[in-house]
Each structure stands twice: as structure tokens, then as C-alpha cells.
Write a structure and sequence with these properties.
12 helices; 26% helix; binds zinc ion; six-stranded parallel beta sheet
């Protein structure tokens, strides 16, 4: 439990105990939670359920958790992450409101409008932003100057039966969208929405290279780019994934283990290069990603799964007038837009659905890169 977590968010400060009885639903003031107790060690525990929500808060019964690469980072243990164990995991989730706190002071903009009610299906923004700084007021939530941490990574997350959240961080799910799918909106969908449209400013008719198109965010990027009429080139690590990426609508799929994506991408674009590269792999492939950009092209990246450090040619950067965007997280508006896209039929590709006790197996599967699409854990 991190000291940075506002008390209302973490429930009572009772140390979780490993439970023989961590099997049923929240009852008698107790609930189940998945707790990271050490590097690569998650336990299903029973602990105190949160108290009734305070003013400006709602209580959510969690129904589904989406897994992301940030779960792998957290599970492996990262030297730079400021956190204390044990820590409840789960960075993105969907659920149903089961209690609503008293109405907050309406003159305080940070508390937001309490229009939410019991029974509403919702997702939540997992960055504990201040709601008051310039970035927050302007809707650039992921640039909050006073963020108290990312739930599930720095402070307790969503993998538990019940959680109290500030209403201003809670977003309703459209009626036609299943909670399993909605659980992929707060991180996976919104991250891609932010990368493609806020940062890279992808336009209809442009050509984009999506690196690692079989990953959770890669599959979303292919679908979002195709939905606005882009030409999509993507890379995958095996022929089975190539077939699936093609079925998602990718125009050209390159198996990067058997072919050089730089050569093929340049050929496919008549040596001009692509308008945008969607990067999240880093490592050796990053220079290749720069090489396939057209002059003035944009590269947007949110990850470095193949390695965080590279060298690249600064002359190439300025002579070719590349624009490189680092992207991390998203805004609440990006989550709303993602849910609206889901309501219009742009749904996540689900690789696997797991039960609560199997969440750790899901993280291991993500780490092994055997996935095509998203892994969702259901409560
Ligand atoms: Zn802020």
C-alpha cells in the first residue's frame, strides 16, 4: 500500500491475509483481491471491503479486468517504480456502480457532477490525477502535475470485488457495449486513440506501419486506422498471426522473423515511406521504424518491450524532418471516444478470457508474446 494513495481509495488499512476462503463474492464486509506480494508472485487474498463511498465518490463492483504490458512490468518488478508491496494489481477494468456517496460541493469543479447512479455500468480512469492543475482543467489528464500514481502499478488497482473511486474519474459505458469489451477501453483503446489522433494526427487516406500488430494495442491500432480509411502495413512474429492480422483488415502483413520489414515497407510505398509509424517495441527495430518514414513523417511510441536504449542518427532526424512523439496513457476524453467507437462496432480482439485466480497465468502469457489481442480476466 502506497502512502500516496488517498485513504478513501484503498479501503481500510488492514493487511490482506492469505485466505482459504477467498472463493466467494464480497460478503460480510470482506472481499477478494489479487495482491502482488513479491516479484512474479500474485496471491488471491481476502481483505476488508471498502467503506461506504465518501462525498463525490462511487463504489464499483468490478466485473472484468484488461491485462496490458504495464502489468508485466509491475509483475516482474521495476527498479524505478515507487511503490510498496503488497499491491492490488489491475490497471484497467469495467464494472457496475453499487453505491453512490453524498453529493459533493457543487462549487468545486474537481468533484464533477454526480450524475452517476446505482446500476450504471462504468469504467474508471486509473491515474489518480489531482483534478485541479492546469493540465487537468484542460482535459490533458495524463499530463497532471500532481498525479498520485497509476492504480495497479504504483497504488492499489482494480483486481478486487469492490473499489471506491472519485466520480470525476468514472465514465459510463454505452448500453450496447459488453463489460468484457469495455474493460479494454481505459488503457488499451484510449492509449491507441491518444497516440494515433492526438499525437500522430493520423488522417484518412494516409499510410501507417503498425509494429507488432498482434499485440493488444497493435490489434486496436489496425482496426482504428482501417476504420478511417488508412492503408495499414503491419508486422507480426509468425504466420498464424499474419493470417489473423489480415483478417482484421491489415492491407499488408510482414513476418519480421522471415522478412526485413524496412525493405518490404519501402517497396510497398514506392520508396516514399509511410506517413505514420505506430511504435511500442523499441530496441533494434526502432531505427528501422525511422527508416521507413517518409520525409516529414510522424513516429509515435508508447513502449520499448524489446529494449529501452538505442542510438540513432540526428542528421537523419532533422534532415528528414521527422516528428517523434512519446505517448503514455490517455485523457478521460480518449476513454469516452474509445467507448463510442466500441458502441459503433469497433470491438477489441479478445485473445483469452480467464477467471480471477488465473490472472497471473495471463500476465505470463503476455510476457511470452503468444497473444493475439487482449487478455481479459472476469470476476
Ligand atoms: Zn492535475
Amino acid at each position: 500500500m502506497s502512502d500516496a494513495a488517498p485513504p478513501a481509495l484503498g479501503g481500510e488499512r488492514e493487511a490482506p491475509t492469505r485466505s482459504q476462503a477467498a472463493r466467494g463474492k464480497a460478503e460480510e464486509g470482506r472481499m477478494r483481491a489479487l495482491s502482488l506480494v513479491g516479484d512474479r508472485k500474485i496471491e488471491l487474498v481476502e481483505m476488508a471491503a471498502p467503506p461506504a463511498p465518501a462525498a463525490g465518490e462511487v463504489q464499483i463492483a468490478i466485473k472484468a479486468i484488461g491485462l496490458n504490458h504495464i502489468d508485466v512490468w509491475g509483475w516482474r518488478g521495476m527498479a524505478f517504480a515507487k511503490r510498496k508491496l503488497p499491491l492490488i494489481v489491475g490497471v484497467e477494468a469495467a464494472g457496475e456502480i453499487v453505491a453512490v456517496g453524498p453529493s459533493p460541493d457543487p462549487s468545486a469543479p474537481a468533484t464533477g457532477g454526480m450524475t452517476l447512479k446505482v446500476g450504471d455500468r462504468v469504467v474508471a480512469y486509473g491515474g489518480l490525477t489531482c483534478g485541479a492543475c492546469k493540465a487537468c482543467r484542460e482535459g490533458r489528464d495524463n499530463l497532471c502535475e500532481n498525479v498520485a500514481g497509476i492504480m495497479g502499478f504504483h497504488v492499489d488497482g482494480f483486481a478486487r470485488d469492490r473499489v471506491n473511486m472519485p466520480a470525476r474519474l468514472v465514465i459510463p459505458v454505452p448500453p450496447s457495449v459488453a463489460l468484457r469489451d469495455a474493460a479494454c477501453a481505459p488503457i488499451a483503446f484510449s492509449t491507441v486513440q491518444h497516440m494515433l489522433f492526438d499525437n500522430a494526427k493520423l488522417e484518412p487516406g494516409e499510410t501507417i506501419l503498425v509494429q507488432a500488430g498482434g499485440s493488444g494495442i497493435g490489434t486496436v491500432a489496425i482496426k482504428m486506422a482501417k476504420a478511417i480509411g488508412c492503408t495499414v502495413i503491419t508486422t507480426v512474429g509468425d504466420d498464424e498471426k499474419a493470417k489473423k492480422a489480415k483478417a482484421l483488415g491489415a492491407d499488408h502483413v510482414i513476418n519480421y522473423r522471415t522478412e526485413r520489414f524496412e525493405t518490404i515497407t519501402r517497396k510497398l510505398t514506392n520508396k516514399k515511406g509511410v506517413d505514420v509509424v505506430f511504435e511500442h517495441v523499441g530496441g533494434e527495430g526502432f531505427n528501422g521504424s525511422l527508416l521507413v518514414l517518409k520525409r516529414g513523417g510522424r513516429l509515435v511510441t508508447c513502449g520499448s518491450t524489446a529494449g529501452p536504449t538505442i542510438t540513432f542518427n540526428l542528421m537523419q532526424l532533422f534532415q528528414q524532418q521527422y516528428k517523434i512523439f512519446g505517448s503514455f496513457g490517455a485523457s478521460i476524453r480518449n476513454i469516452r471516444d474509445s467507448l463510442a467507437k466500441m458502441a459503433n462496432g469497433l470491438l477489441p480482439v479478445i485473445d483469452t478470457e480467464l477467471g480471477l485466480a488465473d490472472l497471473e497465468r495471463g500476465i505470463a502469457r503476455l510476457e511470452s508474446r503468444q497473444v493475439f489481442g487482449k487478455i481479459v480476466v472476469k470476476f
